[in-house]
C-alpha cells in the first residue's frame, strides 16, 4: 500500500504528491479504494486522518480551497467562524465561504460561495496562516446571512463570549442591507454568559414568545459561602436547564465516565432544589420541537412572572 505524505494538517495536495513521485493513477486508485478522501480539487486526506466532526472537516476544506483561491479572496462568513472557533447553531457547512476584497465575486457553485464586498484592512486577520475576516466582522456576516433569529443570536453570543467588541459590531450594522435588521436585533440581545448554541436557542425561543428574559449563570452558594452551582437560566424561584450531551461533554473530566457526571448533576440539582427553587429541564428534542416555552410557561405563571 502506498504511503501518502500528508502535511501537518492531514492534507495531501496533488502537486506535492506528484513532486514526491506519486502518480495520478496512484491517487485515483487510493481515492476509489477509500484510502484517500478527496476534500477539494487536488486535495485529499488519508482516511485514517479524516476528522469525525463536520466543523473540523470544514476547516480542512477551507485550507485546501484557499490554496486554489485568488489573492483578493478572504475566508469569511461560516467558514471564517469555524477558524475563529465561533460556535454556530446548526451551521450549513456545505460550501466554503470567501469574500472578494476587490468587490468582485458574488458567485456560488456546488462547493464555494464567493461573496461580493470590499473589506477594510482592519477587518482582515490571519488565523493559522489563512487570511480571514476578523472576529467582529465574521459574527456580523453570519448573523446577517442565516435568516433566522436563533442562529443569529447564537453566533453573536459566541462572539461576545470569545471577546468580540460589541461597539464595532453595532457600527457595522448601522446602515441598511440584507439581514441587517435581524443581525442588529440579535446583537442587541446577545449575552456572553450564554455558554453554547443550545442555550442560545432556548433563550431565543423565550424571547420570541415574550417570556421574561432570565438571568444567565446565576450562582448558588452553600451555607459556608462556597459556590456549588451555576444555573443556565434563572428567574426568582425557578431554574431552567438544558440537558444534553454538549453540557456533559464539557463537564466530563479525563478520569470520569458519563454515568459519574450524570450522578454529579443529580446531586447538584438536589442542592438547588433545597434552596427552595423549582428546576425544570429540557433536551435537544424539545428545542427542535419548539417546546421550551410550553415547559416554562406553567411554572412562570405559578410564580406570577407572566
TrEMBL record:
<dbReference type="InterPro" id="IPR018547">
    <property type="entry name" value="AbiEi_C"/>
</dbReference>
<feature type="domain" description="AbiEi antitoxin C-terminal">
    <location>
        <begin position="64"/>
        <end position="156"/>
    </location>
</feature>
<feature type="domain" description="AbiEi antitoxin N-terminal">
    <location>
        <begin position="6"/>
        <end position="39"/>
    </location>
</feature>
<dbReference type="InterPro" id="IPR025159">
    <property type="entry name" value="AbiEi_N"/>
</dbReference>
<dbReference type="Pfam" id="PF09407">
    <property type="entry name" value="AbiEi_1"/>
</dbReference>
<dbReference type="Pfam" id="PF13338">
    <property type="entry name" value="AbiEi_4"/>
</dbReference>
<protein>
    <recommendedName>
        <fullName>Type IV toxin-antitoxin system AbiEi family antitoxin domain-containing protein</fullName>
    </recommendedName>
</protein>
Amino acid at each position: 500500500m502506498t504511503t501518502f505524505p500528508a502535511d501537518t494538517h492531514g492534507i495531501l495536495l496533488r502537486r506535492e504528491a506528484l513532486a514526491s513521485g506519486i502518480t495520478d493513477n496512484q491517487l485515483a486508485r487510493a481515492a476509489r479504494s477509500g484510502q484517500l478522501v478527496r476534500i477539494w480539487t487536488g486535495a485529499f486526506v488519508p482516511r485514517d486522518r479524516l476528522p469525525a466532526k463536520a466543523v473540523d472537516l470544514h476547516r480542512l476544506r477551507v485550507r485546501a480551497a484557499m490554496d486554489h483561491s485568488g489573492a483578493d479572496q478572504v475566508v469569511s462568513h461560516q467558514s471564517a467562524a469555524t477558524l475563529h472557533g465561533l460556535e454556530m447553531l446548526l451551521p450549513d457547512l456545505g460550501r466554503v465561504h470567501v469574500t472578494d476584497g476587490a468587490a468582485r465575486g458574488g458567485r456560488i457553485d456546488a462547493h464555494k460561495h464567493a461573496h461580493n464586498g470590499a473589506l477594510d484592512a482592519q477587518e482582515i486577520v490571519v488565523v493559522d496562516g489563512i487570511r480571514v475576516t476578523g472576529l467582529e466582522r465574521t459574527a456580523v456576516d453570519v448573523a446577517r446571512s442565516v435568516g433566522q433569529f436563533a442562529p443569529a443570536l447564537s453566533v453573536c453570543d459566541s462572539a461576545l463570549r470569545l471577546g468580540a467588541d460589541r461597539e464595532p459590531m453595532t457600527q457595522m450594522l448601522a446602515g441598511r442591507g440584507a439581514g441587517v435588521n435581524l443581525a442588529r436585533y440579535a446583537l442587541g440581545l446577545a449575552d456572553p454568559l450564554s455558554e453554547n448554541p443550545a442555550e442560545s436557542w432556548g433563550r431565543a425561543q423565550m424571547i420570541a414568545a415574550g417570556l421574561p428574559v432570565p438571568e444567565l449563570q446565576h450562582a448558588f452558594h452553600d451555607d459556608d459561602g462556597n459556590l456549588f452551582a451555576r444555573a443556565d437560566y434563572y428567574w426568582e424561584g425557578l431554574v431552567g436547564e438544558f440537558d444534553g450531551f454538549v453540557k456533559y461533554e464539557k463537564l466530563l473530566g479525563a478520569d470520569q465516565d458519563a454515568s459519574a457526571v450524570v450522578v454529579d448533576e443529580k446531586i447538584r440539582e438536589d442542592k438547588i432544589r433545597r434552596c427552595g427553587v423549582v428546576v425544570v429541564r429540557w433536551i435537544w428534542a424539545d428545542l427542535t420541537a419548539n417546546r421550551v416555552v410550553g415547559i416554562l410557561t406553567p411554572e412562570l405563571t405559578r410564580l406570577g412572572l407572566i
